[in-house]
Design goal:
CATH topology: Pnp Oxidase, Chain A
Oligomer: single chain
CATH superfamily: Electron Transport, Fmn-binding Protein, Chain A
Number of helices: 4
Distance between the termini: 16 Å
Strand content: 35-45%
Order of helices and strands: HEEEEHEHEEEEH
Radius of gyration: 15 Å
Shape: globular
Mean pLDDT: 93
Number of domains: 1
CATH architecture: Roll
Number of strands: 9
Low-confidence stretches: none
Length: about 160
Amino acid sequence: MLDEQAKKTMLRKIPHGLYVCGVKNEDEVNGFTASWVMQASFSPPLVVNCVKQDSGSNAMIRSSGVFALSILEDGQKEMAQKFFKPQRRVGNKFEDVDFYLGETGCPIISDSLGYVECRVVGMVDQGDHTVFVGEVIAAGVHREGDPLRLESTGWQYGG
């Protein structure tokens, strides 16, 4: 029998970074705070990005076949907060945020440590998230620094 409290406690011990995942669909752009992200292969360079199935961003990734991950710096908690999914869509999340469109057309945060842009090469719908496998097709470094980690914010996502 699964001990629910032990499961929740231990799954929350798995460390995660915080990123802004930029997505697009034709002329529309969006972004969300992503934490279930990891490198999955050296050659070809692959990244796994898990996205809630019922989100608009999930639909945009499916439609466009691309996404970009802006790697936030330790101390950019407010930036991560700005891109959390609201209960309902309110305005443009990129309002007052400097960004540019990368090679994929996805938004990239100018004030991030850097980014990777990915082309979706696989996906698995399982549970309440879609696991997108993206091949890294572009990358850039804006500056050096330590990445923002979920545990440093006091927030929890998992369990």
